[in-house]
What does this fold into?
Amino acid sequence: MSLALSDSPSPVGENSPKWYSDSRKLAWQKFLETPWPSRKDEDWRFANLKKLSYENVCDSEQIDNFDYNQYVSNSVSLKGDNESMIFNNDRLQYQSNLDDELLDKGLIFKPLSLALVENADLLKSYFMKEGPKLGSEKLLNLHKARQINGYFIYVPEGLSLKHPLEIFHWLSGENNVIFPYSLIVTGAGSSVKVAEYTASSDDEFGLACGVSDLIAEEGSELTYVRTQNLSEKAHSVHISNVSAHANSTIKNFSLNLGCEWLRQESVCRLLGDEAHSEMISVNVPENNQEFDMRTMQLHEHSNTSSDLLYKNALYDKSKTTFAGMIKVEDGAHFTDAYQTCRNLLMSDECEANSMPGLEIKADQVKCSHGSTSNPVAEEELFYLMSRGIEESISKQLVTFGFVKDAVDRLNHPQLEEVVLGKLERRFKKIGVR
Amino acid sequence: MSSLEIINLNASINGAEILKGLNLNVPQGEVHAIMGPNGSGKSTLAKVMAGHEDYEVTGGDVLLNGKSLLEMEVDERSREGLFLAFQYPAEIPGVSNANFLRAARQARLPEGEEIDAVAFYKEIYDKMDQLGMDRKFTGRSVNEGFSGGEKKRNEVLQMMMLEPSYAVLDETDSGLDIDALKIVADGVNAMRSDNRGFLVITHYQRLLDYIVPDYVHVLNDGQIIRSGSKDLALELEEKGYDWLKEED
It folds into this structure.
């Protein structure tokens, strides 16, 4: 029997620690007490609040005999011998056997349900420490209260993983909600790359309400690529929190293609000398899709840098909202922070809203922000066509180039190939408009 | 047998008439130079021929192989055999030179036919070597971050890959130092053949030392006011454009 979101969430497995059950209960209380966002909230300006209506949705149920092999082989993914996990409706369907050598070195790559039993204390020290900063208190508490699975990656000090880890999330069934949680921690001097794909297995309405906590300890490197290709009726809420400690680098990349309505909140906190964060996002909405994206680059320590690039190619009557805030706290001197949002308008009816913001309380900082919204430049089109390339193909080339420019920042051929492969499919589906 | 005829061409931009009855015939296999002072209509001519939408053709015609170019879309003109080497080539972020040229070559193939990638790369590398271009330029975004000289070389590379029947070179010498100019001119000269014509637009005579024309035409105020042999360019260099304007 599935529970409607108005019902109290069901308890999780008997073996999970008390702190976890308590945190779920507390979150449920907070969810009930917190009002839904309203038009008056600055963080919800331009947002289509009518979309936040989930009377009919239910906690997802286990789908028997989910043929994940078929879905994996049809999806664009790394297609290598990468360590991977596959979830459907938050239930683990498959996990590859971890390399013994990596296990011996202390790598943890486990579904949350297992990590809660086997690594409870370590998990607790990193688990959902970040409060809401961009308006989604209600949704964050909903996630925390109803979350049943996800994964925990812990890369111990000094270990560098050669190949990216790969996680698949499928959402199945009408009106189902999943609450995937991703916790990735890189210990001092370690490095990891993680690719996570969220998609629907059908074309029903459903909701994916996920949270990702990315924590890079001193001198470590973390690259996180998240792609979202839910059904065109589905909704997606995703909150990511990045904590970059001294000398660490975190790349947080997102690709949004599917879903009818999306809310994406990304915060990066720069917490130590020479911490560096990159936030990159590529979004290609069509038809009536609405993508609402809020970001914060929070510089809390001196000598830190952050760079944000959001690229949106909008077709038809689609709509994007980008609100980006660079916050430089007291004492965070010698901050370098950049923020760019570029919108490529592929129709006369699409709508791109950009609200860049700066709040600086320190001295000696270099900050810049900018946003542009343009159709395909006439000069570029003329140039390509003057070489005999048809107008429609010329437009596709320019659009692909527009997004590729952001994908290139991953600086990792395999991951770029996956993202570009998904984009190629996307543009093929959109076709000539 | 190819031919290029410009017949009584009139064109304007934002209501201002720039070309005022321009006539020119470039037979197959010949190189014609068009010289003229700033504002005489040189670049307008190039852009009108290629089909830039900012320009309005108010009279006359341009016939390529007997067909009116003005009736064709920009891309059709190219596939018909016209090539314009731009004075200021556009930058296309995220589109690699190789993919761009592949798309241009693909556009010339019948539907369903695909380019042979291995042969394509061999060809592009050969031509880049000839132009002294580093092979890494295949992977770089079209013209993005290229120096002035690199952009012009890239224009000549495209011309070599597309093998047009007529090429219009719009101020190809601008922004080039003498070494780059020689390389670009060598590339153009290598393309000269009995079945390909060139229209070389330039402000200065210098380029014509390297790409020696069969004929030189002087454009002033939207019309050809003098035509002659390559010596006319030398005379212009010596006496300046005012000499002809006064005579006119």
About this structure: Chain A has one domain: 18-378. Chain A has a mean pLDDT of 95. The first strand of chain A starts at residue 58 and ends at 59. Residues 18-378 of chain A form one domain.
